[in-house]
Every structure is written in structure tokens, then in C-alpha cells.
Amino acid sequence: MTKKFPIFLMSGRDRNIRREIMQVLDPEEKYETKVLLPLLGKPVISWVVEELVKSKYVETIYSLGVSREDIDFGDQVEYLPIDFYADLNIKYLEGYEYLKSQGKEYDEIVVCMADTPGITVEKIDEFLEAVQEREGYDFILGVVPHQLSKEWFPDAGRVVAPLKDYQVFPGEMFSLSKRAIYEGQEVIASIARIRRKRSFWAAAWYVFKRPSTWTKILKVVLKVAKLKDAVQILERAFKMKADVIVVNDLGFGLDMDVSQNYKQLEKYIIKTKLAGQES
Predict the structure, then answer these.
(1) DSSP secondary structure code for residue 55 in this structure
(2) Which of 26, 54, 112, 198 is deepest in the core (most CB within 10 A)?
(3) Which pLDDT belongs to residue 72?
(4) 117 exposed, middle or buried (CB, 10 Å; 0-12, 13-18, 19+)?
């Protein structure tokens, strides 16, 4: 039997800060969030929804951020009444609580960021198939080989983990267990803040505060750590069952955090999703 997953499609913005990408690409302030910016004829978020609805492993797409008034996907997307400006950890918790109030309670949810227009249904399914095979995990992260980024966009600014067997950066889909959502609120909030710094070592220092990780962190510093060591660091630091899944596709991990990413994604989509189509 094919297992299907609820998808939390994440979008939003900081309450009092207009980030660089919006200052550059939307100086007239027409758009509330970067996922509504037009990209090759349609909003960024539309590229993502189009792929998610094709997946045989997606049960329902829940928007945690933009509302139906912002962009209407009809019955393809359910819009949850969550504070648009809330931090990610709060959105996960309130989103899960809302689903519970509607009689829907899941062992795990899958998070997909709405600013990843290069993502494809093939790689979504590949990731969700791998998640299916890992029952009882609290956190499963899709990662992308850095070599793909270097080939396409050497200046893409990805946050890369310096591992011996893989040079990887985080993808834009991951799964969270019910336990992780409820018990990991402080951890999720901290990681979200660190992610904005776009620094691997900022994340490493946060983990280093937990003594159980020191031997593994030392291997990372000495550049002898492997991907399995990184997984063990996560498990020891946060006392959870974790894993990573390598997805060999740049579109799975190329998001839109800074203005240069917009042109990179435009170029990438033209060469991948729009290749061969008439102008």
C-alpha cells in the first residue's frame, strides 16, 4: 500500500524586516512575500505546487503562510489559519494543532519550502519513497551534492557540509515526526535563526554546545567525517532518530534567499523545465 504524506508548504516573511531579495526585486512593494514574485510567467510558489500535486505520495498540500486571498490554487491546496509572520517552529506546531482539531492526526508531516521552483515531481517522489522506508524517524533531511551547484552556479552561496565522502548542502524538503514538532520547538527555532546566517560553522557551533557530539564534531573539523557521522551528530545533539537522503538534483535544493538566486533559478528552469518548449 502506497503511503501518502501531508505536506506543509511554507512561506512568509519577517514581521519588521524587508529582506534584500525583496528590496532588489520588488522595490515598489507589490508583493507580500518572495514566493509571490513572478518567475517566467507565474508566481514562484506556483512552480512548486504544480509538481507537488503530481506526486502519488502527497495526500494534501497545506499552505502555512500565504492565504487564498494572496493566491488561489482552488482545491489543490488547503490554507491553514496560521500567523503569516510567525516563526517556523510556531507554524509547525500551530499547523499540526489545527489539523488535530479537524480530526487529522499524523505520525509525521513533510515540509516543503515554497521558494524552490526548480523542484520536480520525480525528485519529490524519490525523497518521499525514501521517507516511506524509514519508519519511526523524528527527522529526515534531503541533501544535495555540492558538485551540482558548482557545475551550474559556482557562486550560488550554498551552505556546504565539509564531509569526506560527500560535500552536501540542505535540500528544501524534510520530514518531522509528531514528537519532533512538540518536543523540538527550541531546536527548530534555533536552527531557523542559524540558517539565515548561511554558515555551516554557525550550525556546527550550536551543535558543539552538546558534549555528546564532540568526538564527531572533531572529525568534521579535521575533515575526516563522513555523512554517517553527520547523522550521528544530529541524533546525539538532539536526542532523536534522524537520517539524511542524498537527492542528486540541484532543483531540490536551490531556493531563493538572496536576489542573485532569482536569476540563477530563472536560468535553471529555462534549461530544465522549459527546455524544448516554444518561445
Answers:
(1) -
(2) 112
(3) 97
(4) buried
